[in-house]
Amino acid sequence: MIPRWRGFTLIELLVVLAIVGVALSLIGPVGINQYERMQVTEDREKFLRQLDAIEFNAFTMDAEVVVELQGQALRVLAGEQVLQARTFEHLRFPNQVLTLNSHGYWSPNEVRWVEADSPRRQPLNPPAIQEAFDAD
């Protein structure tokens, strides 16, 4: 008896490759979109963490700090000296100047930015501090 070779035929392999190709064409764009959203979220979280760090540093230095936001750039100034400069790839800022006093109070109270064509805003002062300041 002649031994018979067991394996896959060319047609079977082509059918499997076609199924895998269709699955990748459906899943690929979703994966790319998710990756882009993750990059935007990462930039936003880095930006908000940086604002927290600036607030902490102003409090520990007992100094007023100015934060300038323009385009995709953030600059932190103490007097005329530039303390930090950073560019965010996925965030855009309208022209804003935020002042942080030595007690950790921001003026104005809110920061605005645009991410993925969606405008965002974040209050900077806790509500209790903002209410006390507004009462004065």
UniProtKB/TrEMBL annotation:
Entry-linked InterPro entries: N_methyl_site, Pilin-like
PROSITE patterns assigned: PROKAR_NTER_METHYL
UniProt signal peptide: none
Annotated stretches, region: Disordered: 117-136
Recorded superkingdom: Bacteria
Protein name as it appears in the record: Prepilin-type N-terminal cleavage/methylation domain-containing protein
Organism annotation: Pseudidiomarina aestuarii
